[in-house]
Amino acid sequence: MNRIKKWLGNLGVIVALLVGLVGWILLPWQGVLALAVLAALWLSFTRSGRLALAATRIGIASLPDRWGASSVIVVGIAGVVGVLVAMLAMGAGFQKTLNQTGRDDTAIILRGGSQAETNSTIAREQVPLISSLAGIALDTDGRPLVSPELSQVVNMVTRADGTDANAQLRGVGDAGWAIRPQLEIVEGRRFEPGKRELVVGQGAQSQYVGLEVGKTIELANQDWTVVGRFASGDSHDSELWADAQTLSSTYQRTSYQSVTVRLKNAKALTAFKAAMAADPRLKLDVLSTKDYYSKQSEGLTKLIDILGKVIGTIMAIGAVFGALNTMYAAVAGRAREIATMRAIGFRGLPVVVAVMLETMLLALLGGLLGGLLAWLVFNNYSVSTLSGNFSQVMFKFNVSPELLWSGLKWALGIGLVGGLFPSLRAARLPVTEALRSA
After folding, report:
1. How many whole angstroms separate alpha carbon 242 and alpha carbon 257?
2. Backbone dihedral angles phi then psi of residue 216, each to the nearest 5 degrees
3. I want to staple 256 with a disulfide (CB 3.0 to 4.6 A). Which of 148, 168, 175, 285 is the partner?
4. Which of 243, 258, 282 is the last residue of a domain?
C-alpha cells in the first residue's frame, strides 16, 4: 500500500511538473517578468531568500572545480536551443517571405474552389468582364490595372548540386509591373511583348544555372533570352517572368490561371468582391494577395513548427537527463558542504532554491550560447524549398528576437526540471549521515 501511495505521489509530481513546464513555455514575457520580480523580492527581503542567496554563492564559487561536469548542462542545452531556434527560424523565414509578397490593395482572382494558381483556370472571355468591375484602380491612361497571368513550372538545373528542380515561370500582362511596384529592375531591362524574352528574379538567378543577363536558355524546345534581372524582396524573387501572350502560345494555353488586379485602396476589396458575386458569368474566388500568399505558407510553416518542437522536445529530454546526472553528482560531491550548511541553520527551502538557482544559471548560459550560435549561423541564411505551387521558393532564415526568447524559455525550463529532483535530494539529505560518509 505504501509503495502504491509513493508511486502515485511520484506520478502526481511528474504530471504537475509537465503542466508547469508547458505553462512556462507558453507564458508571455510579462508573466516571466512578474515571476522574476517576485523571486527577486523574495530573495532580497526574506530570511529564507537571503539564506538561499548565500548558499547559491557558495555553490557558484565551487563551479570552477567541477566545470567539466557542469559544461555537460551548458553544451546540452545550447544544442537544444540552437536546433529549436534554427528549425523555427526556417518556418518563420518562409512565412515572412510569402507575407511580404502580397498587399491589401491588390487582389488575385482564381477559379472557384482553387487553392493555388496551378489548379485554377480562367477563360479569356472573362478577363474583360473582370476589368469592368467596380473598385479597380486605373493607370495614367485610364486603363484598368488588370494582369491576366499564367504560371508554368519549368525544369532548371540548380547551382548547388547540379540536380533538376522546379522553377516558376510567370506570364504577366502589360499591367503586371504597375500592380507590383516593389519590383525593381537591377540589371538589364524588361522583356518586350511578343518576344521570347525573360526577366529573372535575383533569387532565381542565384539558385539556377544559366540565368545571367544575356544568356539564352531552352524552354519548350524554344530559345529564350534573359534580358533583365529584378529584385522584389518577396517570393517573386524566385520566379522567371515573361510576356503572358508569348508564354501562352509557346505552351499552347487557351486560358489563364489567375488574374491580378490593383484596387483603388484596401477598402475597395469589399466592393470588388460584391461586384464579382453579382455577375453570374464569374464563378470565381477573390482574395487579397496578402491573404492568398499567407495561406500558401500556412501548411509548410505549421509542419516546420511541429517538427522543430518535436525534435526540440526529444533533445530536451536528453538534456534534462544530462542535467539530472550532473546535478545529482554535484549534490553527492558536495554532501559534506550541504550537510554543514544544514547544521548551521540552513533549512530545506534555501538549499532547494540554491541548487535550483545554480542549475538555472547553467541553463541560462546554455540558452544564451545556443541562441547566439543560431543567430550567427542561420540568420539570413538563404535556402529554397517547395511551396504550395510546387515550385522552389528562395527565402532566408529569420532568427527573430521572439524566437530567441522562446529558445531561452526552453533552456530555463530544462534547467528547472533538471535541477528540481537533485535539489530536493539535497534538502532531504540526513545531516549526520552526510557528515559521516563525506
Report:
1. 15
2. -120, 130
3. 148
4. 282
DSSP state of 144: B
Cα 52 from chain centroid (whole Å): 39
Same structural domain, 372 and 278: no
Rounded to whole angstroms, the Cα distance separating 85 from 311 reads: 11
Cα–Cα distance for residue pair 43/376, rounded to 1 Å: 35
- Smallest Cα–Cα separation from 317: which of 66, 31, 26, 14? 14
* Tens digit of each residue's pLDDT (9 = 90 or more) over 79-129: 888 888 888 888 888 778 777 777 889 999 999 888 888 889 999 999 999
- Grid cell at residue 393: 521558393
Query: What Rg value do the Cα atoms of the chain yield, rounded?
Result: 31
**Residue 10 belongs to a domain:** no
Burial of 192 (0-12, 13-18, 19+ CB in 10 A): exposed
- The H or E element spanning position 258 is strand 258-262
Tell me if 177 sits within 8 A of 183, measured CB to CB. yes
Burial string for 196-232 (b: 16+ CB within 10 Å, else e) reads bbbbbbbbbbbbbeebebeeebebeeeebebbbbbbb
Amino acid letter, residue 400? S
pLDDT digits (tens, 9 = 90+) for 361-403: 888 999 999 999 999 998 888 776 654 444 567 778 889 899 8
Which grid cell sits at 430?
Answer: 540526513
Exposed/middle/buried for residue 397 (C-beta within 10 Å: 0-12, 13-18, 19+): buried
Residue 389, pLDDT score: 45
Q: 222, 247, 282 — which closes off a domain?
A: 282
Interhelix angle for 47-61 vs 335-343, to 10°? 150
- Cα separation, 77 vs 409, in Å, equals 11
- Give the count of beta carbons closer than 10 Å to the beta carbon of residue 307: 14
Query: 406-431: per-residue pLDDT in tens?
Result: 888 888 888 887 777 777 776 676 66
- Domain holding 52, by residue range, is 36-99+297-437
Conformation bin of residue 192: beta by default, left when phi > 0, alpha when psi is -120 to 50 = beta
Quick check: is 328 in a domain? yes
337 and 222 housed in the same domain: no
Pairing state between β 239-243 and 164-172: parallel
What's the rounded Cα separation, in Å, for the pair 182 and 184?
A: 6
- Phi then psi for residue 165, to 5 deg, are -150, 160
Do residues 224 and 261 share a domain? yes
- 204 DSSP β-pair partners: none
β-pairing, 197-201 vs 222-231, is: parallel
